Amino acid sequence: MSVTETGATIWLTGLPSAGKTTIAYELAGRLRTEGHKVEVLDGDEIREFLSAGLGFSREDRHTNVARIGFVAELLAANGVKVLVPVIAPFADSREAVRKRHAAESTTYLEVHVATPVEVCSVRDVKGLYAKQAAGEISGLTGVDDPYEAPESPDLRIESHQQTVQESAAALHALLTERGLA
C-alpha cells in the first residue's frame, strides 16, 4: 500500500434487508486483501455508538446521516476506502453528504442497492418487516415511512438478481474504473 492512497466514501443506500451491509463486508475483505485501508461504517453500530439517543424522525435521520458523512469524509480524506451501508432514506440528506465531500475534494460514490421491498420483507434480516406487519413498530423505511431512491447513482446493484460476490465484484469494477482499486 502506498502512502498516497486515494480514499473515497462509497455510500450504499437501499431498503432494510436490501443487502447493503453484506455487500460492504464482502467488498471490504477483497479491498483489504489487495492492501487497501478500509473501514465499514455500519449503520447499526453508528446508531449505537455515535448517534445514540437519536430517533427515527426525519430530523434525527438527517442528523445521523450528517454525522456518518462527516466521519466518512474525514477517513476518506486520509486515504481510507470508507464503505457506508446506511439506508439514508432522504435524497436531500445524501446530497448534503455529497456536497460536503465535494467541498473537501474527497471522492464520494453513491450506490443504490435496489432490492424490491417484497424481496427485503422475505429476507427480513432483523425481523423489522414482521414487527411492522404485526403492528409492533411503525416508521419502517419503504413500508410506512418514505424512501427516496437515488435518481442517478454511480452504480445500481440489483442484489436480488445476483450473488453477494457478484454484487461486490460490480462495485469493485466501479472502483477500478474510477482509479480507486
Summarize this entry quickly.
By secondary structure, the chain is an alpha/beta fold. The chain contains seven helices and five strands; from the N terminus they run βαβααβαβααβα. The protein has a single domain, classed as 3-Layer(aba) Sandwich (Rossmann fold), CATH 3.40.50.300.
Describe the structure.
- By secondary structure, this protein is an alpha/beta fold.
- It has a single domain (8-115, 146-176), classed as P-loop containing nucleotide triphosphate hydrolases (Rossmann fold), CATH 3.40.50.300.
- The protein has helices spanning 20-33, 43-49, 58-77, 91-103, 117-123, 128-133, 164-177; strands at residues 8-13, 38-40, 81-85, 107-113, 155-157.
- A 5-stranded parallel β-sheet has the order 2-3-1-4-5.
- α3 (58-77) packs parallel to α4 (91-103).
- The N and C termini lie close together (11 Å).
- The mean pLDDT is 94.
Q: Specify the number of helices.
A: 7
- Helical residues, percent: 40-55%
Specify the oligomeric state. Answer: single chain
- Mean of the pLDDT scores? 94
Question: Beta-sheet strand percentage?
Answer: 5-15%
Biggest sheet: strand arrangement: 2-3-1-4-5
User: What is the CATH T-level topology?
Assistant: Rossmann fold
Q: What is the end-to-end distance?
A: 11 Å
N to C succession of SSEs: EHEHHEHEHHEH
